[in-house]
Write a structure and sequence with these properties.
mainly alpha; Nucleotidyltransferase, domain 5; 9 helices; 3 strands; 43% helix; 10% strand; globular
């Protein structure tokens, strides 16, 4: 049974005088292809949204439904992405430093708190994980429509056996990150 993310942390922060609390999360960090997408969500404490969980804990259909509810009911939300070329240029860690789930953002001059497993524990971070995941999955389906050889609609750029086999057949596309190559990929494509 999946545990529902709670508003406990947000409520505690409100008692300390914080009124707008943004949850931030990212998706796509461990992929071979596609962007890293981060989302920030400021939930309205007066507009409860049922069913918010870590994006990995809900089905694609439920994520789509929740995305619509979150983006309609949130006080504010935003999405940003780092494309594969930017990831290769500045490295994956720097490209994903817009997240707060377990990390603090260096040089960000505002109150912040890294929450380990925040996407499972904190409603606003879980909401951000859903918005980021749906946004990235939609983008990967667009890339699949443009070039179906790699199967992005199924694996979304992660290093599945299907994706590695497609890389062995077709080589790298412009959507692939050159800086992230797991050892299994060397065996597959012989580089």
């Amino acid at each position: 049974m999946k545990a529902r993310a709670m508003r406990t942390l947000e409520n505690a922060l409100r008692r300390y005088g914080f009124h707008r609390i943004a949850g931030v999360d990212e998706v796509g960090r461990g992929c071979l292809a596609g962007p890293v997408v981060a989302a920030a969500v400021v939930l309205d404490p007066g507009r409860y949204i049922a069913g918010i969980h870590d994006s990995k804990m809900v089905s694609a259909l439920e994520r789509e439904r929740l995305y619509g509810v979150i983006t309609r009911k949130a006080i504010a939300w935003s999405v940003a992405a780092a494309d594969p070329a930017e990831i290769d240029d500045i490295n994956i860690h720097r490209a994903s430093l817009v997240m707060v789930d377990a990390f603090r953002i260096p040089d960000l001059l505002m109150a912040q708190r890294g929450v380990v497993h925040g996407d499972r524990l904190c409603t606003s971070i879980a909401a951000a994980s859903i918005v980021a995941k749906v946004t990235r999955d939609r983008e990967m389906r667009v890339h699949h429509a443009a070039d179906p050889r790699y199967g992005y609609d199924r694996h979304k750029g992660y290093a599945t056996a299907d994706h590695l086999a497609a890389l062995a057949r077709h080589g790298y596309s412009p959507l692939h990150r050159r800086s992230f190559r797991p050892p299994s990929l060397f065996d597959t494509i012989g580089e």
